[in-house]
Amino acid sequence: MPQTLSDGSIMRVTIARWFTPNDRTIDGTGLEPDVSIEITDEQRAAGDDPQLDKAIELLGGETTPLPVD
Q1: Is the pLDDT of residue 62 over 80?
Q2: Coil, strand or helix: which one is 44?
Q3: Average pLDDT over the chain, rounded to whole?
Q4: For the chain, what percent of residues have pLDDT higher than 90?
Q5: What is the DSSP string of 11-58?
Q6: Is the pLDDT of residue 27 over 70?
Q7: What is the rounded CA–CA span in Å between residue 63 and residue 41?
Q8: β-strands 10-11, 3-4 pairing
Q9: Among 26, 50, 27, CA closest to 39
Q10: Cβ burial, residue 51 (10 Å; 0-12/13-18/19+)
Q11: How many angstroms separate the CA atoms of 46 and 37, rounded?
Q12: What is the pLDDT of residue 29?
C-alpha cells in the first residue's frame, strides 16, 4: 500500500520471499556459490577481478568487450 510522505512523494514498501526451484527459501541465508573465488586487497587495488575471470572461464572463455561511451 503506497504511503504519501510529507513532501508529497510516495513510498511503497514491497515484501516478498524468494524460493529456489526446489521450493527452498533463501530469506536470511542467501545462496552459496557453486564456485567461491576470494579477492585479495592487492587484486582489488590493481583493478583485477578474479571472480569475473573465473566466470568467463566457466562460460567458455571468449568474450567481446562492451563499448564504453
Answers
A1: no
A2: helix
A3: 87
A4: 39
A5: E-------B-TTS-B-TTT----SS-----HHHHHHT--HHHHHHHHH
A6: yes
A7: 26
A8: antiparallel
A9: 50
A10: middle
A11: 17
A12: 84
